[in-house]
């Protein structure tokens, strides 16, 4: 505690001491022309990325800060401000060229990204716009997004280390505690997921290993030229929220409006400088009965949560959807419906009578869930606005009603002040929301990165259930949203999604199609993520404790992943089905048997060419462009 | 703010280091003079609205850095410029001799061929003149440029230089009208005219 305090926050301009005598170059080591180019490049990029008037103060402040950070003369400020406000600077090539010729950058272009990252983080506030900008600028050097991720992780590590160094004495006991906590957390999650959707409140279950101690140190001791001017703890606290507990610490204290359940469940264990929240659209029986199940392959960030909301209604909805698909409508009719929807001749009046007779099965839960999802979305907006997640960017991804939650979340946020710089990407898949560009327009203000609308033209189920909500068939989940903005990306998922229920089942392919990073060898990674996974006798135990709560307990017993389940998984022949992740996902660390899914990984990461109709993620993103 | 502004013109100031480019600009925009003005970093950018023949024009003036280390940045500013002010120091012959280099660069990077150029001999208030007025005039004629001698310190000819340049640009409607109408599609507009010859097409006024 005491060792770091001496170097404390009082030395704003001093870079952190280098460990091992090695100091990596920073932005200040560039030549003046390069530094100017760097600032100019950022300024011009800012004006391109965020031309909206709402972002003008961010642009000017950012540029002004950068000029100081790079040790540039004040005289360049007016010029750079002019750049940032969109005047001049049509051409960034020359700036890039100058930078690339700089000996420091030439040697390692990551220096620039790192420096911009340090600058973005120096106040303990990672703005989503800053991240989008760093990503944009880095891409021209070319620094890949993986490298950026790595850098962010390095920063996190250096922040952690700086803290741990000064509290060495308490380290061992704390580590013990953390281990215990982890166990406890697994247990709790286990209870939560095994119960088939009933979620047990995790009050700060994800402990704050990073921010626990109170002393401040100067960051940068890890050899990365990190945040020289800010105290590490302050930065960490600010970035990760006061409790450091992240979103799992959030608990709905009282019933908010009509919402009965609202909870964040961790999908991954890691900590990251940006958070991803996945929102499930319904809960089916079987392997998709948990909120986390569809997101097993999601690897957008190392810190991912899924939102648990309104379990009972979503289960009812899921059951109704499945009933319609499996029982009441035969395959021929489904195909026919698909093409009717595809051809666009469907109106509310032309639905086949056979379908309308079963409409009562679905209309009620659908109506309730439509209503609830909007309320949940609004609630989520206020949680994000109040920075429960800390001051770092959040990406939202959801399918079906989960996408509707996002839609209403963004809409609610857009009506608030200070809504900028929180959301990085928003990915809406098969969203039962208005598809008119005017409804999406306000999102430009809120979202810094991408707004992705994944749609399926032949999704007759969506078009059917949405028929009562909207007279015209202008549903985002069925057609592209024609918003003229660089953020807006429409991805036609028709070839992947053949029915609305496929959004959950084909999520890993969909994620690749919309350019979201998926776990390359996610099963191996899961093993790594759960090093303390419970002993083999644990799963039944956990299941038993919650058996009284849900009847689905039996499913767990029969279908749940047993540690010895490997052969069954291994014999799967069609990798594109990828049922494996779902089993992993629902166990989510608790009962995760390290060897549960050995086959999936290699097939999934290679399956780009043959089984994924959209090709490998890289190709997919290219074709989508 | 600019409802009655006829057009926005992009003016570029180039020339060797220390000839007084920034001082000229400062005199023109703020009517001040600083003998200790620091070297420009990268580029300086100022906006000023002036009225010529009853037409209001908004000038976006780019004052480039003359120093060699920033030279690589200069080409990017040439794009879309309607007028260029080429400055030399009448007390330093080397800055006059190097004008040819600047003209070469202009030719290489300018995206239009009807761009208006003006040659300005600065610092005429100083005693130790090395470049005669007639030399400058001759050079300007040879390269179809406007010519004026000025002093940022005494304010001599500065206003005149900018006004004359703007007047000439406005008299060349092809130079600014299309630009004005196609504000939304600037990119395509630029690309097509790349690499055209420079400085031809009309006579000097002086």
TrEMBL record, chain A:
Its main location: membrane. The keyword Transmembrane helix applies. It is a multi-pass membrane protein. The chain crosses the membrane at residues 186-219, 225-247. Residues 571-589 have a biased composition (Polar residues). Keywords: Membrane, Transmembrane, Transmembrane helix. Residues 1-26, 534-625 are annotated as: Disordered. It is found in: Membrane. PANTHER family: TRANSMEMBRANE AND COILED-COIL DOMAIN-CONTAINING PROTEIN 4 (PTHR17920:SF3), TRANSMEMBRANE AND COILED-COIL DOMAIN-CONTAINING PROTEIN 4 TMCO4 (PTHR17920). Belongs to the TMCO4 family. This is Transmembrane and coiled-coil domain-containing protein 4. It comes from Erinaceus europaeus. The lineage of its organism: Eukaryota, Metazoa, Chordata, Craniata, Vertebrata.
UniProtKB/TrEMBL annotation, chain B:
It catalyses: GTP + H2O = GDP + phosphate + H(+). SMART domains: ARF, RAB, RAN, RAS, RHO. GO terms for molecular function: G protein activity; GTP binding. Its EC number is 3.6.5.2. One of its GO terms (cellular component) is Golgi apparatus. Keywords: GTP-binding, Hydrolase, Lipid droplet, Lipoprotein, Nucleotide-binding, Prenylation, Protein transport, Transport. It is found in: Golgi apparatus, cis-Golgi network membrane; Lipid droplet. The keyword Nucleotide-binding applies. The keyword Hydrolase applies. One of its GO terms (biological process) is protein transport. The small GTPases Rab are key regulators of intracellular membrane trafficking, from the formation of transport vesicles to their fusion with membranes. Rabs cycle between an inactive GDP-bound form and an active GTP-bound form that is able to recruit to membranes different sets of downstream effectors directly responsible for vesicle formation, movement, tethering and fusion. RAB18 is required for the localization of ZFYVE1 to lipid droplets and for its function in mediating the formation of endoplasmic reticulum-lipid droplets (ER-LD) contacts. Interacts (in GTP-bound form) with ZFYVE1. Interacts with ZW10 and this interaction is enhanced in the presence of ZFYVE1. Interacts with BSCL2. Belongs to the small GTPase superfamily. Rab family. This is Ras-related protein Rab-18. It comes from Erinaceus europaeus (Western European hedgehog). The lineage of its organism: Eukaryota, Metazoa, Chordata, Craniata, Vertebrata.
